[in-house]
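Morning!

This is the sequence you dropped in the shared folder:
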Amino acid sequence: MNQYRQEDKQYQEKVVKIKRVSKKTTGGNYVTFSALVVVGDRKGKVGIGLGRSLEVPPAIQKAISYAKKHMINVPIRNKTIPHEVRVKFKAARILLKPAPEGTGLKVGSVTRVILDLAGVENASGKIIGSRNQIVNTYAIMKALSLLRTKF
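The structure's back. Tokens below.
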């Protein structure tokens, strides 16, 4: 897929959200940018990073650097997740389920990007309670970190 940046040979990056933040000060407006980035190798490793800077490119670079340092391993069985998982993180409730071969990723918003870069090809899921992409991203990472191969 061409929409993912490929600077490192082993990791692919996808910018999920860029937000312009303006703070009122006595001297005027203080404008910064924050970037949310997902990094993965499509073989079971994925990480997210949130970077802030005065301009967009440094914010993206900070986010990529943080994501690479804080990657988690996602267990994958038959190109799907090993079992169902339910997670509550802040206002977001996440439900992820394994799916049979050929189903594809039946998930919405940032879940598709994270699972795709983790290497999961078949899964279904639902996000309830929050439309905030940053909170949903952290909730999905929490759900993926709870996955186990053996009970």
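Headline: The CA atoms of residues 95 and 126 lie 5 Å apart.

More detail when I'm at my desk.
O.
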